[in-house]
């Protein structure tokens, strides 16, 4: 905490950090590639050759923000330094933000930066199964699945221990839905372990080594052991951090945050998580407010 405060005590220090992150070999004009630039005013640069103006935050998640980078960095620190994550109320309080809506929007933007689709796909042996999340209160007629979302859990195994995970909400348990999720989360050529559900029947044709490790299959229940472990941790985390107050329409964001945390659970340095999240926030496109409020935009 002290180290963080010292390192990012000024707006200039934050800009400098972002600049180094985006252009490790020195600034380059995004338009003509020229390396000589003039600093016009705070974080705004002008190319000495083509006169193109750009800022350190242009084209990143931090673009168009009226708040300082210093405040954003504090938000990221708050989010990554806590073992179980942060909710909007807590962030609002810690940063002294004016409104709950701002805190909520910030957290959702940062969650979008946590997992970049197509990157870091799982590899090797991967156990896959699907579970229902949310809508804990089954309705009176006992239709348990009302208001629940179906989530595919992919668990990479290293020497029979859990390594990394990927989580993906799917529309249903049909072959195309499950296959899309697996293609996005697992590299072709991997050994994919599933139960006998017919929706997994086409995996061999997609280039996976398909291993059915349990014959019987019911969608969403009686899941495979490693997936079951991740599922119970995920449900406990959702309940504990958000008191179960997770809207299904925004579930994907929470799944991304959980994935980010889980995959770095053995990292002893909180600083590394901070670094990774700033880096990824600088690598994703700006997120307009209406996209955020409307739920998850699938790339
Ligand atoms: Zn230029």
Overview features:
299 residues, alpha/beta, five-stranded mixed beta sheet, three-stranded antiparallel beta sheet, 10 helices, 38% helix, binds zinc ion
Plain-language structure description:
The protein has 299 residues and is of the alpha/beta class. Helix content is 38%, strand content 17%. The chain is built from 10 helices and 8 strands. The protein has helices at residues 2-7, 11-22, 69-81, 88-95, 100-112, 175-185, 225-242, 251-263, 270-283, 289-293; strands spanning 37-41, 44-47, 53-55, 125-133, 149-158, 161-170, 191-195, 209-214. The strands form 2 sheets. It has a 5-stranded mixed beta sheet, sandwiched between helices. Strands 1-2-3 form a 3-stranded antiparallel beta sheet, with no helix packed on it. It starts with a helix and ends in a 6-residue tail after the last helix. Zinc ion binds next to loops.
Write the layout of secondary structure elements.
Elements lengths: L1 H6 L3 H12 L14 E5 L2 E4 L5 E3 L13 H13 L6 H8 L4 H13 L12 E9 L15 E10 L2 E10 L4 H11 L5 E5 L13 E6 L10 H18 L8 H13 L6 H14 L5 H5 L6
Parallel strand pairs: 4-7, 7-8
Antiparallel strand pairs: 1-2, 2-3, 4-5, 5-6
The site of zinc ion has 8 residues, from loops.
